[in-house]
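Quick question about two entries, pasted in order.
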Amino acid sequence: MKDADILFCRKAVVNRLSETTAYYILHPSNVTQGQDASFLSSLFVDANLTEITQQKTIFFQTSLTELSALPLQTNIHMVIFLSANELTEKHVETLSEFRLQGYQLGIINPKPEALTVALLSIFSYVMLTLDHLSVDDVITRIKHPALSSKNLWVNKIEKSEQFTQLLENVPEGQFSGNFINKMTSVKGKRILAYKAILIDLLVALNNRESSPRVLAECIERDPTLTYRIIKLTHSVIYRSQFNVSNAQRAIEIIGVRDLIKWVGLVMLGSVSGKPDCLFSMAVSRACFCQNLSTTLFPKLDGAFLVGLFSYLPSFLDEELPTLLKDLPLDENIKSALLEYKGNLGGILKIVVAYEAGRWEKIPFGLLASKDMSKQSLKDLYIKSLKEAREMGSL
C-alpha cells in the first residue's frame, strides 16, 4: 500500500459557461463497467469524496450487478449511470426499488424507441457519448419527448467544433471530454474493501434490531469472506453437523458476538506484502487478551478485538487514531486502544508488556489479588499461542 497508489480518476463536467458542475469518477484503468471491490473501497472508504469533489455532484458508472453493493451516500449528491444495453423491462421493479431507497440514476446512450416509458421514467439523467454517437445523433436523440425533460450530459467531447455545436443545441446540458478538461488522478493510500464491510457490520451490530439476514448481506458482499465464515462452522471450534451453504446460517451457528472477531481476522489475513509471522503475532495477542480478560473480568466483552486491532498500524501502515476514526467501535474499545484506559486498556498494557519481556511493567501484585500467579499468566500465554495456531489454519 503506497501513498502514490492511484485510487481513482476524475473528470470535470461543465455547463455552457465552462463552470464545473460535477465530477465524473472513473476507475484508474478507465474501465467504467464491472468495477472491482478495491475500486469501490477506494471510492467510498479510502478518500474524502466531499473534499475531493468540492461538494459538487459526482457521476459514477457501474453495472446493474454492482449497484446492489454500492452504499447509499446521504452526504453526497451522487448519480449512478447504467448502460442502456444491459437494461430491459424486467429490471423496472429492481430499479424502482433503488429509486425509492434514494439513489439517483442515469442511463447511458438510450434509444428511446427501443425502451418502454416505464423504464425510461426511472432515470432522471441521460449520458450520451460521442465515441458511440455523432453530434447530429445526439441532437436528434435529445429532442425525443422521453429524453427532452431529463438532465442531459454529453461525454467524450474531443474537438472544439463539437463543443460549439452542442452549446448551440443543448444550452442547458452538461459536458465533459478531453477537449474541456484533462483527467486528474486522485492518489492516496489504498485500504482493503473489508474495511467498508467491517464498518457496515459494526453499524448493524450496534442496532439491536438487526437480524442475521442483514448481517449476512454485509458478509456476502465478498465471496472470500463468505467462504471463510462458512468454513468456520465445520471447524473444531463450532463442530457444526449441518451442511451450511449460506452466510446467514453460518452466523446463526457462530453467533453474533463472535462475528466481528472472525471478520477482523479475515481482514488482516488478507493484507498482502506482510510477513506471515505478523498475522500470527496479532492473533496470539488477541487470544492472550481474551484469555486474560476471561480470567480477570468474566463479563467483559471486546478483549479479543482490542488485541487484534492493536496491530492495525503494522498491517495498514497508518496511525491508529486515523484507522479507528471511521470505525463505529464501542468507546471502551477505542479508549483502550488509544490510551490504555479502562479494564480493556489495562489488559492490553499487561499483554504488550509480557510479550516484550518488560516484567517491571506488569502489576504482579494486583494480579495476585485476583488469584493469578506468574505461572498462571505463563500458562495463559502458552494456551493463547496454541489457540492462535488453530485459528491461523482456518
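Here is the second entry:
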Amino acid sequence: MQTIVTDIAVIGAGTAGLAAYRAAKAAGKRAVIIEGGEYGTTCARVGCMPSKLLIAAAEAAHELRHTAPFGVHVDGQIRIDGREVMDRVRRERDRFVGFVVRGVDNIPERDRLRGYARFIDNTVLQVGDDADGTVVRAGRVVIATGSSPAVPQPFRVFGDRLVVNDDVFDWQDLPRRVAVFGPGVIGLELGQALSRLGVHVRVFGVRGGVGPLTDPAIRAYAAQAFQQEFYLDPDAKVTDMAREGDEAVISFIDRDGNAVTERFDYVLAATGRQPNVRNLGLENTGLELDERGVPVFDPATLQCGSAPVFIAGDANDVLPLLHEAADEGKSAGENAAAWPQVSPVPRRAPIAVVFADPQLAMVGQRYADLPADSFVTGEVSFEDQGRSRVMLKNRGLMHVYADKASGRFLGAEWIGPRAEHIAHLLAWAYQQQLTVDQMLAMPFYHPVIEEGLRTALRDAQARLRA
C-alpha cells in the first residue's frame, strides 16, 4: 500500500477527465488522473465515431438503391457483406481509440494511476484493492467517470439477446432481425443504419418521442418521414417480451391496431444512459446525493455543495455531448485549481444533431421551454427547396423561433438535409444574440440548402412585423 499526496485527483480519463487534468496542470498544480477501465473516450470507443462508421456504410447502400430517379441505373444485385461492414467499423473505431490512448500515454507515468477509485472521505481516495492499492490524499477532487447505458429491468428477460450500443460495434457480422427500444439519438441512428444495411428492424418508443425534438409539428413530420422507410412506433404498445432459445420474442399492437408477435436475433436497448457513480463510495463522503446517487452540484460551477469536489461531463448528466464534456472538464480543472475561488462554466450555444437521414437538429432554446405567446415561429418546408430537390434530398420541415419584443433569434428545431451544417450557422447566430433582421443581412449563396433557412427567417420576420 502506497500513499500519494497531490493537489488535485481526477477520477476518469475520458473527455472530461483529460480536460480537467490538463487544466489543473496548466494552472501549475500537482495532479493525478485515475482510470480503472480501458483508455479511450466514450465517443471514440462506443459512441459518435463508430456509429458514424456504421451510418456511412448504410448511406452508401441506400444511395446505390436510389439512383434510378436520376436516370442512373445500377444493374445487378447490391450485395452487402456484413462481415466486411463490421470489420471496417471495428478497424476504424480502433484507430480513433488509438489516437486517444496515445494522448493518455503522453501523460507522465507518475500522474497516471490504474484502478478503480473509491472515496474514503471527501478528498481521500482508495485506488485498487486494500492490499496492493494506493491511497490518494488530494486537496481537491474532480469526478469525471462518464456514463453507461441504462437498461430497464424488464428487458433482462432477453438474456444475452439483449445488447446496448457498446455491444453493436463489436459484432462480427450483421444480424438478420433487431428490435430497437428507444427512438432517441442512438436508437434512430442505429435503427435506420441497420435497416439500410438489410437488417429487419422494428423501433419502439414511448410517449411519442422522436429524437430530441420537442416541437409537435416537427416531431410529427419526423415520425412520418422515418415510418416511410422502416417500422417506427413512437408510442408503442408492447404486450409481452420473452426469450425462446436463441431468439427474443416480442408481442405488440402495431400502428394499425393488429396484434403481432415477432422474433428477433437481438434487442437493442437504446433507453438512455446513467452516470457512473454507483461504485465510487460516495456514501463515505459528506456530499448530498440525489435520488440517483449523484452528488448534488451547482450546474454553473460544477462544485458539489461547499466541498472541494467537482463533477464534470456525462457523470453529471447536464449536457452529455463531447464538446460540452471537454468544456466542463476544463472548467472543473480550473475551478479545482483555484478553489475556494470558483467561476461559472462558459456555456456555448446549445446544439444537438441526430445523424439520421434526414438529419434532425436543435439549436438554442427548445420549443418546449419557450413561454407561450412570447415568440413567433418561422417555417420552411424543404420539399420544394431548390437545391434539396435537385439532389432528391427534399424531405424536411424547419421551425425557427424569434422573440416578439426584440426580434432576437431564440432557437430552432427541424428535420432536413445537411442539418449538421445549418445547425452550426444557427448556433453561432444564437451565441452572438443576433436578431432575425441581422441574420437576414448575412449572405446566402445560390443555389444552396441554406436558402431554406433564409425562407424560414423571412417568414419569422414577416410575423414579427405583422
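Reply: The mean pLDDT is 95. The chain has three domains: 2-37+115-147+274-338, 153-272, 351-465. Hope that helps.
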